[in-house]
Amino acid sequence: MTLSAPGTTPNQSGLMTPLKPVVLLQQISRIYGTGEAMIKACDRISLTIHRGEYCAIMGESGSGKTTLMNIIGCLDRPSRGRYELDGVNVAHLSKNRLARLRNRQIGFVFQRYELLNNLTALENVTLPLMYAGVGRRQRQRLAMAALQRMGLGHRLDKRPSQLSGGQQQRVAIARAIVNRPLLLLADEPTGALDTQSAETVMTILNELHASGMTIIMVTHSHEVACYSKRIIQVSDGHIVNDHLSPQEV
């Protein structure tokens, strides 16, 4: 069996050819304010992440890691520079096209779950499918399968207030993956969880990565970052190291 180097795949001749990056940032800056009030939350950041990678963006509060994730997740636009998501330059897409791209290509997991309290677990997970135009029966089938994958097949009809924090986060992960996104973004996914629930969530992320999913996780925690395969350190709006292994942190 031929093993491929990261970011490459064998062609018909058996030679290694570069893969198209999932995320390609070129000299990205995000600037707020002007003059003396100007803040560069991200400053000339260049970064490449390939399909199947599991990366952690790590930095202290105010380091720029959340701004960077928002740009990668198409929740914010860079002030300068170029961002390609799977080869598509997203900088000049209309709001509607950007929203469609987010829905179909990116799954989000947030620290506070961001579930709708008036909907059941099943209804929360069907939402991305509804926005994507998937029919009702197919939505139900796919959402049930995603929740069963999270070990929540017996909690389909429960609302968030009837679930533990760990269960809510698993519902959020099910919602994030139900559209089979190109990229999963997790922003401090264990920040509101107890130790046991946090370990469960990180085990699930490891399993998703093992199945081939590309994952970018934002965290300030060394312990959480070490679940990933590649750690990207951010400080004062700059990437100070873009390819640390967990053993080097």
Can you describe what's shown?
- The protein has one domain: P-loop containing nucleotide triphosphate hydrolases (Rossmann fold, 3-Layer(aba) Sandwich), CATH 3.40.50.
- The longest helix has 16 residues, at 195-210.
- The protein is globular, with a radius of gyration of 19 Å.
- The protein has helices at residues 65-72, 95-105, 121-131, 136-149, 165-177, 195-210, 222-225; strands at 8-10, 16-18, 23-32, 39-49, 54-58, 80-85, 88-89, 106-109, 183-187, 214-219, 230-235, 238-244.
- It has 249 residues and is α/β, with parallel strands linked by helices.
- α6 links the parallel β9 and β10 (214-219).
- Residues 1-5 have low confidence and may be disordered.
- The strands form three sheets. A six-stranded mixed beta sheet has the order 8-9-10-5-11-12, sandwiched between helices.
Task: Describe, in short, the structure shown.
With 249 residues, the chain is α/β, with parallel strands linked by helices. 31% of the residues lie in helices and 27% in strands.
- CATH topology descriptor: Rossmann fold
CATH class: Alpha Beta
Q: What's the total count of β strands?
A: 12
The helix count comes to 7
Inertia-based shape: globular
Taken together, the total number of domains comes to 1
CATH superfamily: P-loop containing nucleotide triphosphate hydrolases
What's the SSE pattern? Answer: EEEEEHEEHEHHHEHEHEE
Named CATH architecture? 3-Layer(aba) Sandwich
Could you state the oligomeric state of the chains shown?
single chain
Helix content range: 25-40%
| Cα gyration radius (Å) | 19 Å
Q: State the secondary-structure class.
A: alpha/beta
How widely separated are the two ends?
Answer: 32 Å
Residue stretches low in confidence (pLDDT < 50, at least 5 long) are 1-5
| Biggest sheet features | 6 strands, mixed
The fraction of residues assigned to DSSP E strands is: 25-35%
**Widest sheet: strand order?**
8-9-10-5-11-12
Mean pLDDT: 90
Pfam family, one: ABC_tran
Protein name: ABC transporter ATP-binding protein
InterPro entries: AAA+_ATPase (IPR003593), ABC_transporter-like_ATP-bd (IPR003439), ABC_transporter-like_CS (IPR017871), ABC_transpr_LolD-like (IPR015854), MacB-like_ATP-bd (IPR017911), P-loop_NTPase (IPR027417)
Keywords: ATP-binding, Nucleotide-binding, Transport
